[in-house]
Specification:
Mean pLDDT: 85
Low-confidence stretches: 1-17, 483-493
Distance between the termini: 30 Å
Oligomer: single chain
Radius of gyration: 26 Å
Number of domains: 3
CATH superfamily of the largest domain: Glycerol-3-phosphate (1)-acyltransferase
Order of helices and strands: HEEHEHEHHEHEEEHHHHHHHHHH
CATH class of the largest domain: Alpha Beta
């Protein structure tokens, strides 16, 4: 929400709202941040932060990010910096006194939204004064300028509050504060709800507000709008963004089919080293291509959509993954795999089953319960994280009690057992991945022997799609050389 016009006099004390000025991390915040970071790294299969050097260690700072996953987004931003980040959160979170005290100690600032409590809107005057005081004291503020949490692969229209707060704080001190507005792109990927997903957090170059003093003095409203548009473009360049959401399914399907070849293509994105960033940039490139052809060559775009949909449907009909279909297996290679797979399958089953009970079952139960409780898809990760913490605590406690009762383990033995639980989970996941790989090879060999015609039809559909793949690859290579690449707002990694 955009703050109302504020007079220049010194800020009144924030204690009237219970908002003490604590700009720097205290012991409680550091403990909470450490616990959250540990939970996030356990919740996600892979957590990647790119561009953390763009977050200064000190000085007034506004972190502005997209908002795909409710409260988990705030936890994710906490991974980018050890600094205390004061997030603006809806005031209804403060309705319970105990929660209000805890959130205030952790630096959360209540913001009154017309959607939640229109009668409290006048209180935002004091809230924004508190934000100015935080920036003047060298603090960091976290804001989600979209104002709503959503799972669409699109950066929604942004409120002007983030830029207004920064510019107003600068104006109160003659544009001598040095407020930086840092764009952050949160990218969540979870193709299979039964498994942990990936989090890639990309931090862009900051917008230094002191450079806009003259423009703000001449045209405050226009400067706010222009900088908000710039912030929107920078965040858009750090995530996968589609102007037309109806193209999301075809983009996902094309990425699934083409990514295995393109992720290792030396000509595509040669300057991007890590796979997490390459996947984001590659998917954005596919989205750009689909939207371009839909606008200027709609006939080919419809043909691409038909080819991708037909290939995906044919593959799923026989329950084959893209990876499995690319393999070339036969009776003799399968026989050579059988004995090692059988030995590992038999000997590893008890340990893998115990690891599954400790780590996979709580996650599956958590996912099912969370899906029943959420009102919005963007809340799912938050519910899963909160319920999962409790579910794992219950399971681990129950197993420790059983070990204590049925074994002679002392306290040291029980402690070591608990430390081994995550390792068992990892070994269990590797075991089931190996068994799944062997099962796919067995299934593919059976199809070659019993339904060879059907398998050849699927491969023919893939060959038809290969022509579309070559055409889209040429588009991506041409776009890399195009002079308007900067105009598109797609920064490199």
């Amino acid at each position: 929400m955009s703050p109302p016009p504020v007079a220049r006099p010194a800020s009144p004390p924030a204690v009237e709202l219970g908002l003490a000025l604590r700009p720097h991390a205290d012991r409680l915040y550091r403990v909470a941040r450490g616990a959250v970071a540990l939970a996030m790294r356990a919740f996600f299969r892979r957590t990647v932060v790119r561009g953390a050097e763009n977050v200064p260690d000190s000085g007034p700072l506004i972190l502005a990010a997209n908002h795909p996953s409710s409260i988990v987004d705030a936890f994710a931003i906490g991974l980018a910096t050890p600094r205390k980040v004061h997030f603006l959160g809806r005031s209804t979170l403060f309705d319970a006194p105990w929660r209000a005290r805890l959130l205030s100690r952790l630096g959360v600032i209540p913001i009154h939204r017309r959607l939640d409590a229109a009668e409290r809107m006048a209180g935002n005057v004091e809230i924004f004064r508190h934000c100015y005081a935080l920036l003047e004291a060298g603090g960091a503020i976290g804001i989600f300028p979209e104002g709503i949490s959503h799972v669409d692969p699109q950066v929604k229209e942004m409120r002007t509050g983030a830029i207004r707060i920064g510019l107003e704080a600068e104006a109160r001190r003659g544009f001598a504060l040095g407020v930086r507005v840092v764009p952050i792109g949160l990218n969540f990927s979870r193709p299979d709800p039964r498994r942990r997903g990936d989090l890639t957090l990309r931090v862009g170059a900051p917008i230094l507000l002191t450079r806009h003093a003259e423009a703000y003095a001449a045209d405050p409203a226009g400067t706010v709008d222009a900088l908000t548009a710039e912030l929107h473009g920078r965040i858009e360049g750090l995530v996968v963004h589609l102007d037309d959401l109806s193209k999301a399914p075809i983009v996902d399907a094309a990425f699934e089919a083409f990514a295995p070849d393109w992720l290792t293509d030396p000509l595509l994105l040669p300057e991007v080293g890590d796979e997490a960033t390459r996947r984001i940039e590659l998917k954005q490139g596919i989205a750009d291509a689909v939207e371009y052809y839909s606008r200027f060559q709609p006939a080919w775009a419809r043909e691409l959509e038909q080819h991708v949909a037909a290939y995906r449907a044919a593959r799923e009909q026989v329950r084959l993954t893209e990876d499995a279909l690319r393999r070339r297996v036969g009776a003799m290679p399968l026989l050579r795999q059988t004995l090692p797979a059988a030995v590992i399958g038999v000997l590893g089953a008890p340990l893998a089953g115990f690891g599954w009970l400790l780590n996979v079952l709580p996650r599956l139960v958590t996912h099912r319960i969370a899906r029943r409780l959420v009102r919005e898809p963007s809340q799912l990760a938050t519910y899963e994280l909160w319920i999962g913490l409790q579910a794992f605590a219950v399971v681990y406690t129950a197993v420790v009690l059983l070990l204590r009762r049925w074994t002679d383990f002392g306290r040291l033995g029980l402690a070591l057992s608990v430390l081994l639980f995550p390792l068992l989970g990892y070994l269990s996941s590797r075991y089931f991945a190996l068994m799944r790989h062997y099962g796919e090879n067995l299934h593919l060999t059976a199809l070659q022997a019993l339904r060879r015609g059907r398998l050849e039809q699927i491969r023919f559909a893939r060959q038809q799609l290969a022509r579309d793949q070559d055409r889209m690859r040429r588009f991506l290579l041409e776009e890399r050389r195009a002079p308007d690449a900067a105009r598109r707002g797609r920064p490199g990694a």
